[in-house]
Amino acid sequence: MWWVGLTNTPRQDTKDYKWTDGTAHDDTILPWKKGQPDNGGYGEHCGEFWNRELNDDNCDNKRNYICEKDKYWTIPVNTPPVVIKTNPTPPTRATTLSTSPASSGPTTTLAPPPTIFIPIATRAGVSYVSNSRNIFSAGCMSSMTDCSGKPEGDYQNCAGCSVYATCAVSGFYTRPCPQYLKWDDNLKSCQFRSSTCFGP
Q1: In 48-73, which positions are buried (b, 16+ CB within 10 angstroms) versus exposed (e)?
Q2: Is 21 inside any structural domain?
Q3: Where is 146: in which H helix or E strand?
Q4: Where would I find the C-type lectin domain in this sequence (predicted)?
Q5: Which residue range forms the structural domain that includes residue 36?
Q6: pTM value?
């Protein structure tokens, strides 16, 4: 059960639930449990998220909570694509060239793999950084020098997507994400997909 910032106080009934920003609750987006809200005991005026639905409960009960945060960045409009050149690998496509009467048969050459163009959104005012294996759309940190002027905390590490950097008074630390996860510098956590690191 989680508090989600939904209440109808100072009312004393089951109507007019609103989010903390004043927006009215929409049942089609996040429905109430069947029979809820019921204002049980005449003291339930806060919405809690319970088993994928809402339930009303006493606002004084201690619960974990879910907070809404502003996005760290917005997707820029008309961002030029970042060019990713594929590594030289054994070619996979064959091209038949014209033959002359003197040749013994068609000549086959192997074509190189194509260059891939992928648009990558970056934070406004921040240019992307890349190394030989990864592209960091929000920049990255590689040493204590990069921590200068930054608050203590966790940041994208230039060593790769599966690690992150911690800037602390005691030093610069490289920390691993759990297996199969990548650091997302917008969310400040390890995620299955990262919006700030592209690569292995």
Answers
A1: bbeeeebbbbeeeeeeeeeeeeeeeb
A2: yes
A3: helix 144-147
A4: 1-68
A5: 2-65
A6: 0.40
